[in-house]
Amino acid sequence: MIAQAHSATLIGIEALPIVVEVDLMGPVQDSGERNFVLVGLPDKAVQESKERVRAAMKNSGLNFPNRRIMCNLAPGDIRKEGPWLDLPMALAICAVDGQVPRDELDKTLILGELGLDGELRPIDGAVSVALMARERGFRRLIVPEANAPEAAVAVGVEVYGARRLLDAVELLNGSTLFTPQRFEHSAEAILPEYGVDFSDVKGQRHAVRALEVAAAGGHNVLMSGPPGSGKTMLARRLPTILPPLSLEESVQVTRIHSASGQARDRKGLIWERPFRSPHHSASHAAIVGGGKNPKPGEVSMAHHGILFLDETSG
Question: Kind of pairing, strands 140-144 and 158-162?
Answer without folding.
Answer: parallel
